[in-house]
Write a structure and sequence with these properties.
Cytochrome Bc1 Complex, Chain D, domain 2, alpha+beta, binds heme C, four-stranded antiparallel β-sheet, 14 strands, two-stranded antiparallel ribbon
């Protein structure tokens, strides 16, 4: 299943997995299974940490070891993993909590929790603060938690640089230069730090997608492909010291599939729907309005992620367009500020001022040469998805 799910067996993502996973007597199979004790941070814990760096002990395991009996049970367990299973201990999170004026998108929800932040008992027995999936893949909007929405205010590069500056710890100058270019909502999630960051995606409609990640690194040949991705992500981010029980990886996949955007308030524009069917459906073809990967040269957008050694496949995957109105900035690298700009030929000019600064944003030309009324109708349709 792992072999079948890797779009390009020679990129670093694939090579690491093929040389470590499912080998029986060596590699990751030998790692101990770990069900950590963990709680989501709340105001009381944050206040305590801010006042004396103290962390009260944690006694609740993420899972009680009982296999769920039905789908609702798997999804509920997956939610616990999403909010509570540590990716790793994080000094950067500690710095964000004790330096709130940095304002890097570490957020408090209206119910007094801090989604994405946890206190947990690490493998060495020490209680630490750590991060989870929810740090990048939830948002707080008017106090309410929106699960699955990308946290586009989360500025990991700025946070990490601020930490190194405050603690006078060494950071490789080349890495520091790169982190300065990330900006909010973009993160490099590979451990090698060797390439450009990508925009954090919404996790809506993924079940319908034939490939996962923006460059289609993972062929979504079935739910197991997503479960393996999540298993290896948790294992890898915990410095390959432990592995999550398979049940937790499966539960996490079921939870991710269950995510849907908040209900729409606008109705579809009929003319826009017709234009979309004619000019966009060939690629944005499935029920989440995403589709099969396309050669990067054909889309024409910046190629560095598609050609990158870490996750590259030479292709890009049409993302889901569910709730696309709230998904700005657009494209894999977040280079376009609005849907209006995406459909506007002026972004091809060097004078375009986008989220990444001044400069032309080329490619994905569909719709940019249409008459104004057609573009308006298409925009109205896109905003209803
Ligand atoms: C530091 C921020 C961050 C954290 C934490 C994080 N992710 Fe992501 N996630 C990203 C980014 C950035 C991408 C885009 C990667 C790419 O396209 O190559 C991504 C991509 C994904 C995708 C593929 C989406 C798609 O459109 O195909 C899934 C699924 C996903 N993440 C789930 C998770 C889960 C589950 C966790 C917790 C185990 C998690 N992520 C933790 C930033 C994060
Ligand atoms: C040939 C295939 C193809 C066609 C035709 C196509 N798209 Fe896309 N679309 C893609 C790909 C691939 C991406 C991702 C490109 C990237 O990230 O660099 C994308 C990205 C997008 C995005 C950005 C979504 C986000 O969250 O970043 C929007 C919006 C979009 N397309 C709308 C449209 C509309 C509207 C049309 C028709 C006018 C259309 N597309 C036609 C392949 C296509």
């Amino acid at each position: 299943m792992l072999v079948a799910s890797l779009a390009n067996p020679t990129n670093a993502y694939s090579r690491i997995r093929l040389s470590s996973y499912g080998l029986g007597d060596r590699g990751w199979d030998l790692l101990p299974e770990w069900t950590p004790k963990s709680v989501v941070l709340d105001d009381a814990r944050v206040e305590r940490f801010r006042s004396d760096r103290g962390i009260a002990p944690v006694t609740t395991p993420v899972w009680n070891g009982v296999r769920p009996a039905d789908m609702a049970g798997w999804i509920a367990l997956g939610r616990e993993v999403f909010f509570r299973y540590p990716l790793r201990a994080e000094v950067f999170l500690e710095h964000a909590l004790t330096t709130p004026e940095l304002s890097v998108g570490v957020l408090r929800a209206g119910d007094g929790t801090w989604p994405g932040g946890i206190a947990f008992e690490d493998v060495d027995g020490k209680t630490k603060l750590g991060i989870t999936c929810a740090l990048c893949h939830t948002n707080v909007e008017n106090g309410a938690l929106v699960v699955g929405r990308a946290r586009r205010t989360f500025d990991y590069g700025k946070l990490r640089l601020a930490y190194h500056e405050a603690t006078k710890t060494f950071v490789d100058p080349e890495l520091a230069r790169r982190m300065r270019t990330w900006g909010p909502g973009r993160a490099d999630v590979t451990e090698d730090d060797a390439e450009d960051p990508v925009a954090i995606p919404d996790l809506f409609g993924l079940r319908a997608q034939p490939a996962l990640t923006q460059a289609g690194t993972i062929l979504h040949v079935g739910p197991t492909a997503l479960a393996i991705r999540q298993e290896t992500q948790l294992l890898h981010s915990n410095h390959q010291k432990i592995k999550p029980p398979r049940e937790l990886a499966w539960a996490l996949a079921m939870f991710v599939y269950s995510l849907t955007p908040p209900p729409r308030t606008t109705v579809a524009d009929a003319r826009g729907a017709e234009l979309f069917a004619r000019s966009c459906r060939s690629c944005h073809s499935n029920r989440a309005f995403g589709g099969a990967t396309v050669p990067a040269g054909f889309v024409g957008t910046d190629r560095s992620l598609a050609d990158g050694g870490a996750r590259g496949t030479g292709r890009y995957r049409p993302p889901s367009l569910l709730a696309v109105a709230e998904a700005a900035p657009y494209l894999h690298n977040g280079a376009v500020g609005s849907l209006e700009d995406l459909l506007d030929a002026r972004r091809f000019e060097p004078s375009y001022e986008g989220p990444l600064g001044r400069g032309a944003v080329v490619g994905h030309k569909w719709g940019t040469d249409w008459p104004e009324p057609d573009r308006r109708a298409l925009l109205a349709f896109l905003k209803s998805l």
